[in-house]
Amino acid sequence: AQRVTQPEKLLSVFKGAPVELKCNYSYSGSPELFWYVQYSRQRLQLLLRHISRESIKGFTADLNKGETSFHLKKPFAQEEDSAMYYCARPNTGNQFYFGTGTSLTVIP
Amino acid sequence: KAGVTQTPRYLIKTRGQQVTLSCSPISGHRSVSWYQQTPGQGLQFLFEYFSETQRNKGNFPGRFSGRQFSNSRSEMNVSTLELGDSALYLCASSFGQGEGLNTEAFFGQGTRLTVV
Lengths: 108, 116
What we know:
The complex is a heterodimer of chains A (about 110) and B (about 120). Chain A is mainly β and about 110 residues long. In chain A, about 0% of the residues lie in helices and about 40% in strands. In chain B, strands 2, 4, 5, 6, 9, 10 and 11 form a seven-stranded mixed sheet that branches. Chain B has a four-stranded antiparallel sheet with strand order 1-3-8-7, with no helix packed on it. Chain B starts with a strand and ends with a strand. The interface between A and B is medium-sized, with 23 and 30 residues.
């Protein structure tokens, strides 16, 4: 099955420290990968996708085909980054495979 | 433009009852997907509708069903509710065709279903 795996359920970092949320995928072809974020009491929303190679809110994610990873990184974490982060890969149509999510807490 | 709207926001039902949830997609979007979100399982795909046809289906029992209307609005129905059906049900809409930028899914705020 073509899945994404997020090995960390919980991650805590101090404000100003670098943060990396891990995502690994299993897929034989060239994947299209996304990061979605869900802030407290807000809807799930797209953070970034690898195809557009953009940086949103200081976050970047590089596709590493050798390691089959798409880790989300930010050099200096902010308190407002505290949220639930999901790595996702689209299947046919509009179906997404989501990872189990990582809850990020940025400690002031 | 208006986002994805789900109604109702909260629902409490008793075991054995049935429930219908509604989702209005973003104007112009023809694909609507439904997900079940629970703390233990995360986001689990239920099914996707595109132009009134079910295009994909996840691994949920037949008690879970859906449909899509000609205006792309979608409903999800769960019959014979069980305690384990308590979850946040999310709806997502997209254009539903092509790849790349068109595959972004826009989510509603969800319907919180509690089965007692």
